[in-house]
């Protein structure tokens, strides 16, 4: 554990999920591969579109509906609507294709388990302070083994902007009924988690599961309060 700033007494903790408890990118890649395979199996015309069209439609959705950039569910479903619209689907057939394809993606996106040692640490922490999760993603908490670890999980959406915007931090602070300076946020991303938390008045702990932690290799303009060598070190702070 390395300290960069003085810590106030901790009365509550919030946690990022993706890349903090698990390496997220491989699961997203696998889920997209499964989704495209499902689409091509059931709607062969989509094979001629492929990932270039997907990326183009994604840019169009974000340009047309900027709020979608904060809502991964709405964004992906909107891109699917454009993909299937491009092959001529409309009405109930379009809605069915979007639903089944998104469900395929979401199943594989959450098709893993968080390591048992992380679950053990969270349960030990929860006996001492309230815990909440703040995520820009949409992983299924129950399926990955974190069900019951947090009092509440906040997901970015079209009405609640993603980190580093303060929306979810401020809502968590209100729901916790704890001063922001007494909350420790734990996350892997030095911009979205660390800077976002600090700018919202929280304290910040840097911890990444998906990569070797080296500040010299990271883009950051704010230091965390602490950098952790293991998640279990949080137990020493309360």
How would you describe this structure to a colleague?
The protein has about 240 residues and is of the alpha/beta class. It has two domains: about 1-20 and about 115-235, 3-Layer(aba) Sandwich (Rossmann fold), CATH 3.40.50; about 25-110, Four Helix Bundle (Hemerythrin (Met), subunit A) (Up-down Bundle). About 40% of the residues lie in helices and about 10% in strands. It has seven helices and seven strands; from the N terminus they run E-E-H-H-H-H-H-E-E-H-E-H-E-E. It has helices at about 25-40, 50-65, 70-85, 90-110, 115-125, 165-175, 190-200; strands at about 1-5, 10-15, 130-135, 150-155, 185, 205, 225. Strands 1-7-6-5-2-3-4 form a seven-stranded mixed sheet, with helices on both faces. Helix 7 links the parallel strand 5 (about 185) and strand 6. Helix 1 runs antiparallel to helix 4 (about 90-110), helix 2 (about 50-65) packs across helix 3 (about 70-85) and helix 3 crosses helix 4. The protein starts with a strand and ends in an 11-residue tail after the last strand.
């Amino acid at each position: 554990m390395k300290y960069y700033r003085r810590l106030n007494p901790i009365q509550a903790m919030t946690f990022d999920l993706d890349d903090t408890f698990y390496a997220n990118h491989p699961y997203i890649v696998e889920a997209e591969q499964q989704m495209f395979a499902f689409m091509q199996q059931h709607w062969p015309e989509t094979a001629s579109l492929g990932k270039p069209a997907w990326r183009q439609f994604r840019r169009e959705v974000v340009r047309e509906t900027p709020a979608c950039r904060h809502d991964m569910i709405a964004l992906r479903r909107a891109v699917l609507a454009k993909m299937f619209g491009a092959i001529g689907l409309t009405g109930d057939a379009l809605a069915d294709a979007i639903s089944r394809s998104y469900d395929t993606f979401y199943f594989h996106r959450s098709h893993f388990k968080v390591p048992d040692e992380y679950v053990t640490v969270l349960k030990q922490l929860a006996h001492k302070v309230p815990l909440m999760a703040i995520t820009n993603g949409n992983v299924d908490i129950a399926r990955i083994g974190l069900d019951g670890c947090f009092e509440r999980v906040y997901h970015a959406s079209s009405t609640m902007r993603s980190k580093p915007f303060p929306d979810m931090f401020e809502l968590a602070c209100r729901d916790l009924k704890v001063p922001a300076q007494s909350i420790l946020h734990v996350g892997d991303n030095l911009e979205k988690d660390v800077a976002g938390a600090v700018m919202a008045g929280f304290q910040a702990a840097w911890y990444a599961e998906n990569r070797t932690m080296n500040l010299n290799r990271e883009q950051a303009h704010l230091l965390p309060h602490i950098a952790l060598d293991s998640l279990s070190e949080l137990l020493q702070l309360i």
